[in-house]
Amino acid sequence: MAHIGSYVPAETALIGLVDSIRTCMSIDESILHGLSSFALELQQMSQIYQGHGERSLVILDEFGKGTRTTNGIGLLVSTIESFLKDSNQCPHVILATHFHMLHDILPSSPLLSHQTFASLHHHGEMVYLYQLIEGHARGSYAGLVGLSAGVARDVIQRQQQILRSHSANSSIGVRRLERKQQDWTEVQEAVDLLLSARLSTADAGDGLLQRVFICTTPDW
């Protein structure tokens, strides 16, 4: 921020010199590229390898998420290790990831620091403190974030059930989905209308769609 003249929200700051800023961030797939989003990520990383130096600032955002989790973690770990091996040319790297087990796999190094954002649980909700602290995330808070975003509570409860089963390496119980008899009756009415329809004109088609809509729309 200081290098481009932006305000730095700090009482004091020690600003190191950088000669380039290189990023590897998520890119939407496009037919113009002729590549998947994951292939584009790898292409970005290849360019970083070819041009980085000890004064480069490298920013990696969720690198490896475009493939299977095990493959993504392997790519990310090997990338970080390759930077650490060449300490004389190791760039300044800022990395954001949701691979929580990363700290258990990476080797200890004076060049490596793990940090996370502080938060609190208050009455079943997440409270963000907007403070960067030493340490790492202990797990995923997807359920709490989902609740705060308005996701239905029964969906979150099912998510938590599946997460606990997966973490314990136990079988995930199949939940029987049941519908009210009234729902099936409404669907059957719509099916009967479609089967008996005689669509000779555009108006007849519009009328049929309106009747089906009435049959399948719940009373609020």
From TrEMBL:
Tell me which UniProt keywords the record has, alphabetically: ATP-binding, DNA-binding, Nucleotide-binding
List the InterPro entries hit by this protein, alphabetically: DNA_mismatch_repair_MutS_C, MutS, P-loop_NTPase
Q: Which Pfam families match?
A: MutS_V
Q: Which GO terms describe its molecular function?
A: ATP binding; ATP-dependent DNA damage sensor activity; mismatched DNA binding
Q: Which SMART domains match?
A: MUTSac (SM00534)
Q: Which GO terms describe its biological process?
A: chiasma assembly; mismatch repair
**Ranges for domain DNA mismatch repair proteins mutS family:** 56-72
What are its GO cellular component terms? nucleus
Give the highest taxon in the source lineage: Eukaryota
Q: Which family does it belong to?
A: Belongs to the DNA mismatch repair MutS family.
**What PANTHER family does the record tag this protein with?**
DNA MISMATCH REPAIR PROTEIN MUTS FAMILY MEMBER, MUTS PROTEIN HOMOLOG 5
Q: What is this protein called?
A: Putative mismatch repair atpase msh5 muts family
The opening ranks of the lineage are:
Eukaryota, Metazoa, Ecdysozoa, Arthropoda, Chelicerata
